[in-house]
Amino acid sequence: MEDITERRRAEDKLLKLSRAVDQSPVRVVITDDLGLIEFVNPAFTRTTGYSAEEVIGQNPSLLKSGQTSPETYKKLWSALTFGGRWEGEFLNKSKDGRFFWELCNIYVLFNDRREITHYVASKVDITERKQSEHEALKSRDIIDTAKSRLSLATKVGGVGIWDYDIINDILSWDEQMFCLYGISPDTFSGAYAVWRAGLHPDDIQRCDGAVCFAGRK
């Protein structure tokens, strides 16, 4: 008879690790020391459209969209060569031509002699986040353009503009507002409450109504 308790424990541990990788929403890619793919998990195949059989033995560059700068890849390999780890973003392309963003973390596996044996990449989908950032930036550009046009129009017409950040409680004035109130920008306090205290009673209610309409209680 032979005691196989430790062996069974090791097998159970490996089984847990295998299931964790297979069931993870994070895409996992393992390549050999030459950068050729040896393993991908199901999350990778779901996103890219490539089966494991199609990519085994291939270079991960088959996902290149052509939108990532060569400088990014230079930094990647420099970091892996000298530091053993790299993190960054890729805009890649799936088998059917769909583009998707990934936050990628790549690190090196060494053997007992500190020789590189494999590269392991874990990738998180950030496509929605990048789309939201793009929409927010586009909206900001539209707002800034509208503000510039409005500022120009009101300046010509002798009307001042104040802009209130309801989240951070910051009040901003344009140049015409300073002229109308006859004060210097250097002495201006940007908090709404400070400015409110100096308003004419007839104006306080209208200004408070505008701020409440914007969402500040």
Q: Could you describe the 3D structure shown?
A:
This protein is α+β, with helices and mostly antiparallel strands and 217 residues long. The protein has two domains: 5-128, PAS domain (Beta-Lactamase); 155-217, Beta-Lactamase, CATH 3.30.450. The protein has eight helices and seven strands. The chain has helices at residues 5-23, 42-48, 52-55, 70-82, 127-157, 175-181, 192-197, 201-214, and strands spanning 27-32, 37-40, 85-93, 99-110, 116-125, 162-165, 170-173. The strands form two sheets. Strands 2-1-5-4-3 form a five-stranded antiparallel β-sheet, sandwiched between helices. A two-stranded antiparallel ribbon has the order 6-7. The radius of gyration is 29 Å and the shape is elongated.
pLDDT < 50 runs, ≥5 residues: none
The overall pLDDT, averaged over residues, is 80
- Taken in chain order, the helices and strands follow as HEEHHHEEEHEEHHH
Radius of gyration from the alpha-carbon trace, in angstroms: 29 Å
Distance between the termini: 77 Å
**How many strands in all?**
7
- CATH C-level category of the largest domain: Alpha Beta
CATH fold topology of the largest domain = Beta-Lactamase
- Overall helicity: 40-55%
Total helix count? 8
Q: How are the elements arranged and paired?
A:
Elements: H1 5-23, E1 27-32, E2 37-40, H2 42-48, H3 52-55, H4 70-82, E3 85-93, E4 99-110, E5 116-125, H5 127-157, E6 162-165, E7 170-173, H6 175-181, H7 192-197, H8 201-214
